[in-house]
Design brief:
heterotrimer, A alpha+beta (340), B alpha/beta (370), C alpha+beta (77), A: 340 residues, alpha+beta, 60s Ribosomal Protein L30, Chain: A, Phosphoribosyl-aminoimidazole Synthetase, Chain A, domain 2, 24% strand, C: 77 residues, SH3 type barrels, five-stranded antiparallel beta sheet, 39% strand
């Protein structure tokens, strides 16, 4: 019997649930531990190696679930792996919980599962446990995914705003704004055509390069929701230093600038899924960091964009292209096209 | 950046720097404090986005005006739109600017985006596209000044001429010249010059301002200004020059876009669909002939006629100074709520809720916080 | 209330519609508020409509004014 869409019974734990797991999910995810079908999967790894463990979780609700350059599956894997990477950890294991909306097409689900499988393989991680539930139609945006990730701490110097001092350099790892624009363009009934793809990517290899800077690397954070502005403001918030950046130095493509202009968006607030902010001490180390990043396809447009200073405690200051100076505030509210 | 901005040096640091020195020179000669009002909300945002304040001498103060459509739309307008979605009588299509404006109960339209009863569009043209996909009645929240009004009128002209049913326009259309008149007529007003809205002027041309500014007893210069950094610095420079020479002319500093007679085709389309009417401006009150409403013969698309809105609560929150702020009589920091209970996430008045409102701009870009 | 941006006309579809470009972004806009739009014209686009054709000769004139300003500044310094 060929089922075309998810039914409520797929989530109720009975025969149909088993069918979903055995005949749809497992064949695509193809993982040794998954075949166990036990309620919990035991991890020997940390017990044996005595390494330090990092643990993170994130839930993905992107709308629409598929967008130029990726889908929620790819995002759920890379997003959580990246959270571990910017914490100084090598991603190893993931759990995956899915909430499916009744009526979701099996074909769509399979496409997302395939993305998950491809992303997991590329990232070298294993999904070792998971769960699937189904909610009635109208109660869930087609598919929501939660992934929790475990990684092995490989960078021992600590990654924290508390290590940041005036004089440190601010680096952006690549061109900004792609993910948010890609999702927006997939959602809107606009007559604007762009070939902008989401930048969703596995960032651990880039972070690994920066770990070689040792104690000169003070801080890393990926610039997801709220963009670069959110990260910079999070860094200075409650601290007695400021960040001053030069608009001229910010890596951004003409296309992203153009769409931002047209729709009235601030590129510094647009979500990214393949860009992080790094704080590095000393000029020569910051230049080295940029060279290391530029050496990798995911860091082609890396740039030093500013410095940590003492002049405006708790604030982020932007030196504008035309020579002015102003505060860059936390993003507030939804990113929406404006006419005013 | 884009060819055209580079080619004509509209963002050029050294050109901005030269204008800055000229502005300093003239402001120093004038000596006293000078207050220039930027009428248009988009100017408020652009000025802050480019960090223009940091380039001006201390005695040149820029103050925000009433050209913020969200700021001057009465609360009852949002209440009526909310009524429609709560009773599931229509799907609301709106520009993003209106989404988070609270009605009299504090609720905004954003709560209804999830079940698609409220949708944000970038262009009125999307109304026609979405009409084919949505089965329920559609109401478009038509807010704006003369830049936007022709675009909406054009789409609804099509709705009428192609007999599209169940598609309504709820107007909150305001016109700029009457607001300028009110500001000038106010004896307590201390505005020394106006930066006139560049894109409204694209539609209107120079003449409507001339009638008001040059014939007024007050004698205040008005410079039609564009929106790039050099345009804005030029607008300020020319305003100061006029102040220095005691002139009060309407001057066009945006001639690449604004023709002296404006865009008559756009005005014709507005005239086809709409007629001049008295309009309630939040903060300024009822201004005669300051708005545009749908003509009687097109009542089939008029949301106010089709849906019979009830209840008009237009009380201002206690202590909110927005009305004074949009007239340039107070600055946001004068308000007791500013930065305390009135924040961008928890706005009390429209000047904070609108992304181009003076209070939101002050809070977010920190005019005096630097 | 005036968010608008300059875009170049690259194709005219009919009396009402044209394709415009900025960087590699293309958009379809309504040109019915204008007369005599040509390919190569730069128009100001607001809410999906072209509301005016830019007069680049004026922009050119303005550019000359700015260089005069720079000269004046130099003589004053």
């Amino acid at each position: 019997m060929k089922i075309k869409n998810i039914k409520l019974e797929h989530g109720s734990g009975g025969a149909l649930s088993r069918q979903l797991t055995e005949e749809i999910i497992y064949p695509i995810l193809k993982n040794d531990s998954y075949r166990e079908l036990s309620d919990a999967t035991i991890i020997d790894y940390f017990v044996k190696s005595k390494k330090q463990l990092a643990f993170t979780t994130d839930t993905y609700t992107v709308d629409p679930p598929a967008f130029p350059g990726g889908d929620i599956g790819k995002l759920a894997i890379y997003g959580t792996c990246n959270d571990l990477a910017v914490s100084g950890a090598k991603p190893l294991f993931l759990s995956m919980g899915m909430v499916l909306e009744e009526g979701l097409s099996i074909e769509k689900l399979q496409s997302i599962l395939l993305s998950i499988q491809e992303a997991s393989t590329h990232a070298g991680i294993r999904i070792i446990t998971g769960d699937t539930k189904v909610v009635p139609k109208g109660k869930g945006g087609e598919i929501y995914i939660n992934t929790s990730g475990i990684g092995e701490v490989v960078f021992s110097h600590g990654i924290s705003p508390s290590r940041i001092k005036p004089g440190d350099y601010i680096i952006i790892s690549n061109s900004i704004g792609s993910h948010g624009i890609a999702v927006l363009s997939a959602r809107e009934s606009l007559s604007i055509s762009s070939k902008i793809q989401s930048d969703v990517a596995f960032l651990y290899p880039l972070c690994e390069k920066l770990f070689t800077l040792q104690e000169n690397l003070k801080f890393l954070r990926d610039a997801t929701r709220g963009g670069i502005s959110a990260v910079l403001n999070e860094i200075v918030s409650g601290n007695n230093f400021s960040i001053e950046i030069d608009e001229e130095e910010i890596p951004i493509s003409d296309d992203i600038l153009s769409i931002s202009n047209i729709l009235g968006l601030n590129p510094l607030e647009i979500a990214n899924e393949g860009v992080f902010v790094a704080v590095v001490s000393k000029e020569n180390k910051a230049k080295e960091a940029v060279n290391l990043l530029k050496d990798h396809p995911l860091g082609k447009n890396a740039a030093i964009v500013g410095r940590v200073t003492e002049n405006y405690p708790g604030k982020v200051i932007l030196n504008t292209n035309s020579g002015g100076k102003r505060i860059l505030d936390f993003p507030r509210g939804l990113l929406l096209p404006r006419i005013c | 950046m884009f060819n055209i901005l580079k080619e004509y040096k509209l963002e050029d640091k050294s050109t901005v720097g030269n204008l800055q020195k000229e502005i300093e020179r003239i402001a120093h000669k004038i000596g006293r404090e000078i207050k220039i009002m930027e009428v248009c909300g988009t100017h408020t945002v652009s000025i802050r986005k480019f960090g223009i304040h940091s380039l001006l001498p201390k005695n040149v103060r820029l103050i925000s005006g009433p050209g913020c459509p969200v700021c001057v739309t009465p609360t009852s307008y949002i209440d009526h739109a909310l009524q429609l979605v709560k009773n599931k009588r229509a799907v609301i299509l709106t520009f993003g600017d209106m989404l988070k404006v609270p009605g009299s109960s504090g609720e905004s339209l954003s709560a209804y985006m999830g079940n698609e009863l409220v949708r944000v569009i970038y262009s009125p043209l999307e109304i026609l596209k979405l009409r084919r996909e949505i089965s329920q009645p559609i109401v478009f929240l038509g807010i704006g000044f003369e830049t936007t009004i022709p675009t909406i009128a054009s789409v609804f002209k099509q709705v009428i001429e192609t007999d599209i049913n169940n598609t309504f326009l709820y107007t909150s259309f305001k016109t700029v010249p009457p607001a300028l008149e009110v500001l000038l007529a106010d004896p307590s007003n201390q505005i020394d010059g106006f930066l006139l809205p560049g894109h409204v002027s694209v539609i209107l041309g120079e003449e409507p301002y001339r009638e008001i500014l040059e014939k007024s007893n007050k004698g205040v210069p008005g410079v039609i200004t564009g929106f790039e950094p050099v345009d804005i610095m030029l607008g300020i420079y020319l305003t100061l020059k006029q102040i220095q020479n005691n002139e009060h002319r309407v001057e066009n500093a945006y001639p690449r876009a604004v023709k002296p007679s404006g865009n008559s085709k756009a005005r014709k389309i507005m005239d086809f669909l709409l007629k001049s009417a008295d309009e309630l401006w939040r903060g300024l009150g009822n201004l005669p002939k300051s708005g545009l409403k749908i003509r009687e013969e097109y009542k089939s698309i008029d949301a106010t006629i089709h849906f019979e809105f009830t209840d008009e609560y237009n009380h201002e929150p206690k202590g909110c100074l927005c009305a004074a702020v949009i007239q340039g009589k107070n600055i946001p920091t004068d308000c007791p709520h500013f930065g305390k209970s009135c924040l961008p996430e928890t706005p009390i008045g429209p000047c904070m809720v609108s992304s181009e409102g003076a209070c939101a701009a002050y809070y977010r870009y920190g005019v005096d916080r630097l | 209330m005036c968010l608008a941006t300059p875009m170049e006309i690259i194709k005219i579809l009919n009396n009402e519609r044209a394709i415009v470009k900025q960087a590699n972004i293309e958009a379809e806009v309504d040109i019915s508020l204008l007369e005599d739009v040509k390919i190569g014209d730069y128009v100001i686009v607001h809410a999906g409509f072209a509301i005016e054709i830019l007069d680049l000769k004026e922009a050119e004139e303005r550019l000359k004014l700015f260089s005069k300003l720079a000269e004046v500044k130099e003589t004053l310094d």
